[in-house]
Amino acid sequence: MFQNIKVTIPTENIGSIPRPKELIDNINSFKNGMISKEQMDKAYEESIKDTIEKLKKCGCSVVTDGEQLKPSFLTYPISGSAQCEDNGLEITFSDGHKRSVPILSSLIQPPFKYKTYAKEYIDNARKYTDLPIKQSVISVSAMSLLYPSVSINNYSREQFIKDMLNEVERDIRMCLEAGAQTVTIDCTEARLALKLDPSGDLLKQFIKLNDQVLTRFSPEELKRIGIHSCPGADHDSTHSMEVDYCRILLPSLLQLPVGKFYLEFAAESNKQDIILCISKNIRPEQIIFFGVTNVNDPRIETPEEIRDMLLEIYKYIPIEQFGSCDDCGFSPFFDDLSTSRDIAFAKIDARIKGTKLAEEIINKHLNE
Ligand SMILES: [Zn+2]
């Protein structure tokens, strides 16, 4: 019997693309008062435009602004806010370098409010493309780390969490209303939580916080919301690679009621176990985007190896329930120059080509 089945494997990037060196120089000059706001805005606009054009050239059907405007995936809502200060909790990466999470100021005038909402980035990117736009936002669990270990006098932790849940909801909702095709929640601290507390209690608290935000959205909205999990990516090193993906992390994450997951995968050594763990825990309404390019490794994957990774996944996960992505953003922090833009776009190009190759083979197989 003649059949004509045609499936498509969706493929998307996570968010950040390395900023051009000139943009970073301009950001530093602007901080030192050496260039005007107009000059700074122009540099941002050029960089967003170039990023979107290059993503289109690679064949991306959904684009991001490459987070060119974000100081980092974590700090964008509170950058420049008088409610927060630098140097809160320190996160140590595998090469020994550290990044610190901001901390609430003891002089905060409640309630806690975001200074910047991610919707702004969608509006900017929209000037340069008609393609669907994907936007990442920071998770409520990462934001919970802002509250200091010693209570603030006029602002209890409980009240802060209430205010923050509202702000995170608002950030996501505004992106959905601005027409984002997908809003992904960056949840890198999920894996870190298991490193800091192997018992799983901290992760449980993080999952509960995310669940509290997500229950505020309708089933239709949840289809457009995704979660990204990874062991970190900064200066080509990770903060929690040693944590076992399958023991608690994947089963806990997959309980969250979102429609899409963007999971680091290419850098893992026990891929088979991970695929099996996902196939055991996946629910029918979920789509899993597997990372097929390792953002912490300068080697550019070949389309053939990406094809083979996806064909292995196809053996265990229904075709309509998986896609491909990069393991993480290429530069979650604006000043990370460890990966060049050229390497990032070459990896994206390989991902799209490799995904197409897998798709052709699967379509042939389905029509046999
Ligand atoms: Zn990541």
From TrEMBL:
A GO BP annotation: methionine biosynthetic process
Name recorded for this polypeptide: Cobalamin-independent methionine synthase MetE C-terminal/archaeal domain-containing protein
Leader sequence segment: none
InterPro entries hit by this protein: Met_Synth_C/arc (IPR002629), UROD/MetE-like_sf (IPR038071)
Residue spans crossing the bilayer: none
GO molecular function annotations of the record: 5-methyltetrahydropteroyltriglutamate-homocysteine S-methyltransferase activity; zinc ion binding
A Pfam short name: Meth_synt_2
Organism this protein belongs to: Tieghemostelium lacteum (Slime mold)
Cobalamin-independent methionine synthase MetE C-terminal/archaeal domain segment(s): 10-330
Top-level lineage group: Eukaryota
Coiled coil: none
